[in-house]
């Protein structure tokens, strides 16, 4: 299963979230139908754009607890000191995708940024 990890600025729209997911899937050479779920940090749970994008795509939305996000942060491919200071992980989208994908998940597309949103893709491989 493919997991899209999402990070965004406050108020990002569903269209902006969907666009970054589509771009990440295209960059990875994956069809839109391959997406199994969307993951984001629990502190982003109130973002309507993320919730609406998951509903529009018909996939579950997983809110990743901070501890799980931080544990997965050690496996991210990119690092932002600003994001680390703000969110406690070096890359929000990557950490969310890896955490939701389980302990054996592997990153298949490092984060990409489009406007106010970022997306990273992971292949689930363990117990979420």
Can you put this structure into words, describing what you see?
- The protein has 128 residues and is an alpha/beta fold.
- It has one domain: CobE/GbiG C-terminal domain (Nucleotidyltransferase, domain 5).
- 38% of the residues lie in helices and 27% in strands.
- The protein contains 5 helices and 5 strands.
- The chain has helices at 14-27, 48-57, 66-73, 81-87, 92-101; strands spanning 2-8, 35-41, 61-64, 106-114, 117-123.
- The protein has a 5-stranded mixed β-sheet.
- β2, α2 and β3 (61-64) form a beta-alpha-beta unit.
- It starts with a strand and ends in a 5-residue tail after the last strand.
- The model has no long low-confidence stretch (mean pLDDT 91).
- The amount of beta strand, in percent, is 25-35%
**Shape by Cα distribution:** globular
The largest sheet is:
5 strands, mixed
CATH class value: Alpha Beta
Tally of DSSP β-strands: 5
Element pattern in H and E: EHEHEHHHEE
* CATH architecture type: 2-Layer Sandwich
What are the main properties of this structure?
128 residues; alpha/beta; Nucleotidyltransferase, domain 5; 5 helices; 5 strands; 38% helix; globular
Give the SSE map:
Layout (H helix, E strand, L loop, with lengths): L1 E7 L5 H14 L7 E7 L6 H10 L3 E4 L1 H8 L7 H7 L4 H10 L4 E9 L2 E7 L5
Parallel strand pairs: 1-2, 2-3
Antiparallel strand pairs: 1-5, 4-5
Helix pairs in contact: 1-2, 3-5
Task: Give a short summary of the structure.
The protein has helices at residues 14-27, 48-57, 66-73, 81-87, 92-101, and strands spanning 2-8, 35-41, 61-64, 106-114, 117-123.
């Amino acid at each position: 299963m493919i997991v899209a990890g999402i990070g965004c600025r406050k108020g990002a729209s569903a269209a902006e979230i969907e666009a970054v997911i589509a771009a990440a899937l295209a960059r990875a050479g994956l069809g839109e139908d391959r997406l199994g779920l969307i993951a984001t940090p629990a502190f982003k749970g109130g973002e309507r754009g993320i919730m609406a994008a998951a509903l529009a795509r018909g996939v579950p939305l997983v809110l990743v607890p901070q501890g799980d996000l931080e544990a997965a942060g050690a496996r991210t491919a990119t690092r932002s000191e600003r994001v680390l200071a703000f969110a406690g992980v070096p890359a929000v989208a990557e950490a969310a995708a890896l955490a939701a994908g389980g302990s054996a998940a592997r990153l298949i597309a490092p984060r990409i940024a489009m406007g106010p949103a970022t997306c990273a893709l992971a292949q689930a491989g363990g117990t979420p």
